[in-house]
Amino acid sequence: MIDKFIATAQAALADVPDGATVMIGGFGGAGMPSELIDALIARGAKQLTVVSNNAGSADAGLAALIAAKCVRKIICSFPRQTDSWHFDKAYRAGELELELVPQGTLAERIRAAGAGIGAFYTPTAFGTKLAEGKETRRIGERDYVLEYPIHADYALIKADRADRWGNLTYRMTARNFGPIMAAAAQCTVAQVRETVPLGALDPEAVVTPGIFVQRVVRIAPLRKAA
Amino acid sequence: MKKLDRKQIAARLARDIPDGAYVNLGIGLPTLVAEHLPKDREIVLHSENGVLGIGPRPAKGMEDGDLVNAGKQPVTLLAGGAFFHHADSFGMIRGRHLDYCVLGAFQVSVAGDLANWHTGAPDAIPAVGGAMDLAAGAKHVLVMMEHLTKDGKSKIVERCTYPLTGARCVNRIYTDLAVIDVKADGLHVVEIVGGLSFEELQRLTGVALKYREPVAQ
Questions:
Q1: Average model confidence (pLDDT) for chain B?
Q2: Taking the alpha carbons of A135, A139, A143, A147 in that order, is the dihedral positive or negative?
Q3: pLDDT of B213
């Protein structure tokens, strides 16, 4: 029998070792697996490489992970926010390595990892600082930059509904990096709003099939104050 | 001469977006274009974070944290809208499916090089987001910016001194002073703001401009 449901976020991340590469879904707050990040901080693994679009904002989530000095390197497209003070401080202090990647190249490198692609040529960033030192090739009339996949040990993502096989649906723009990160990691942990019995998800509506998901934790949404 | 304000630049640009176009509006100044798109045209707005068919800003209290644009501002979805993941979203951009993107700029060169992500300052924290993908992938790259920097220097330059977002990618520039096409043989002035002569625009811009005086009707 397959049962990917795990009782708590802490239990789902209990084996994350020091030095792991961890993908974290979300675009701003949408799709951000906040409770899983809290559990990762509680787990206390250090020297992590984090792959995420942003580098945290304000004092919670990824920003708190950085503040807790768990992160050695971050691979992202847009670290600078008006409230990214924890990243800014660690970066300026030289405590944090940054690999800045154009957002579409970041997405495609993650997708490539999950799809078993060895490398790919993209026109993005050709002739810019972010392509310096990279192999390039002219194909037809255009110039391209060679980019390699980004694999991860863990992916922490937020979805909407899940069954015990790990099939996932998402809600609106909270989908963002979830499906591609799920495929790119050895162990994908999804936090979901609701778990449902097998067969309750419309197979036509499943966005991430369970083959890409190893662990599912239900996190009941906070009830809004009246 | 009366410079256009930001809303007027947005409105001028919006007039050039045709019915049926798929369009990405960059964060910041370009976002203003959405409010000026002609109501009689169906124009589908794309956002990098996986949405086509963005509607107007939600009413106060109706915001949904799961429905945001690339600037992470709450938006609404029009009937006919769709969601998709990030790799598909950038496939739309890179795969030349997007008709127009509108980007802000620090500098644009005579050759159409765009600099808009990094000032090059040694202590600056770099952030690129989707700008390089949009510059490389959209069928038409439109730039919207003030013509001059705060200290009066032209942002249209012979060569960009800031790090590039994309090389030879800009098709048209909309500023508070003029609309200018970037073509293989140089910069062609399409329109000048009322009360400004071509000679004065040329003097402020610094780099060579071409202009054909409109024939009086």
A1: 96
A2: negative
A3: 77
Cβ-based neighbours of A43, under 8 Å, separated by 6 or more: A10, A13, A14, A16
In the block, tokens 């944290």 appear at B65
**What residue ranges do the domains of chain A occupy?**
9-117+149-218
Residues of B in contact with A63 (CB under 8 A): none
Instruction: Inspect the interface and report whether the beta carbons of A104 and B133 lie closer than 8 Å.
Output: yes
Q: How many domains does chain B have?
A: 1
Instruction: Please answer yes or no on whether B72 and A27 come within 8 Å at the CB atom.
Output: yes
Task: Give the tokens for residue A136.
Answer: 């390039």
pLDDT category at B214 given cuts 50, 70, 90 is: confident
At residue A28 the predicted structure's pLDDT band, cuts being 50, 70 and 90, is confident
DSSP per-residue codes, chain A:
----B-S-HHHHTTTPPTT-EEEE--BTTBT--HHHHHHHHHHT--SEEEE-SB---TTSTHHHHHHTT-EEEEEESB---TT-HHHHHHHHTT-SEEEE--HHHHHHHHHHHHHT---EEE-TTTTSGGGTTS-EEEETTEEEEEE----EEEEEEEEEEE-TT--EE--GGG-TTHHHHHHHEEEEEEEEEEE--TT-S-TTT-SB-GGG--EEEE-PPPPPP-
Task: Tell me how far apart the alpha carbons of residues A47 and A40 are, in angstroms, rounded to a whole number.
Answer: 12
Is residue B129 a part of any domain in this protein? yes
ipTM value of the model? Answer: 0.95
Interface of A with B in 73-132 (CB under 8 A): 77-80, 84, 87-88, 91-92, 98, 100-105, 107-108, 110-111, 122-130
Q: What are the CB-based long-range contacts (under 8 Å, 24+) for A86-95?
A: A86/A56, A86/A59, A87/A55, A87/A56, A87/A63, A87/B125, A88/B125, A90/A66, A91/B125, A92/B123, A92/B125, A95/A69
Q: What are the pLDDT digits (tens) for B101-120?
A: 999 999 999 999 999 999 88
Class of domain A9-117+149-218: alpha beta
Contact A50, A71 (CB under 8 A): yes
CATH number at residue B129: 3.40.1080.10
B64, B125, B132 ranked by CB distance to A102: nearest: B132
- Helix residue spans in chain B (DSSP H): 6-14, 86-94, 131-137, 198-205
